[in-house]
Prior knowledge:
The protein is mostly beta strands. Helix content is 2%, strand content 57%. It has 2 domains: 9-134, Sandwich (Jelly Rolls), CATH 2.60.120; 139-231, Jelly Rolls, CATH 2.60.120. It has one helix at 137-140, and strands spanning 2-5, 11-14, 18-22, 40-48, 53-59, 63-70, 73-77, 82-85, 89-94, 99-105, 112-119, 129-134, 145-149, 157-158, 163-172, 176-179, 185-197, 200-203, 207-211, 215-231. Strands 1, 13, 14, 15, 16, 17, 18, 19 and 20 form a 9-stranded mixed beta sheet that branches. A 7-stranded antiparallel beta sheet has the order 2-3-4-11-6-9-12, with no helix packed on it. It has a 4-stranded antiparallel beta sheet with strand order 5-10-7-8, with no helix packed on it. β7 (73-77) and β8 (82-85) form a beta hairpin.
Amino acid sequence: MMTMRKSQERGYADHGWLKSYHSFSFAGYHDPRHMGFGNLRVINEDRIAPGTGFGAHGHRDMEIISYVLEGALSHKDSMGNETPILPGEVQRMSAGSGVVHSEQNYAQDKTTHFLQIWLLPARTGIEPGYAQKSFSEAQKRGRLCLVASPDGAEGSVTLNADARLFAGLFDGAESAEMTLPAGRKTYVHLIRGELDVNGQTLTSGDAALIENEKQLRLANGRAAEVLVFDLEP
């Protein structure tokens, strides 16, 4: 079974300095039909104006991933990490027993566009942790590249969550197939462009929520960038 969630159905908040689309209930957007999917709790598509950002604030017991599309983020946290996050990089922060961090627009003259992703942790109360890796366009071109996983397989960022995250770029005749594990959930989020997912066309910001399917087929991309989540039930 595959359920489509169109981009325009997402929650939206305009704070002036921040414009954000919410795939699931978050802050002032609440929809009991969309509280998460499996252990995926948040996908916010954020655009931060130059010279602005999120001030220092706390988190605990959440796996938080930042996926930068354009511009750059400046990250600083109570673990001592202070680094820019650039397009093509995947950053994971395990909030664990508690962490304070801030994120600012690191690009001086342009809006920073990124995805903020939250996953429920496999274990709570762990020591906070941090990881950041770059994945090239070549690694993602015409295939699904594993970028985050519980065991760091294939050079991916490690996660304290029962989930795997893949990223891919598809155009023209490029395609990919994935066998879906029985009893798992699959969430496909199209970041930009157009892409056929199991025969149905997604456009920028659309998502496909998949359960009880054996195969995932991606094809007919038109400047498509996609994330695919393998999630616990």
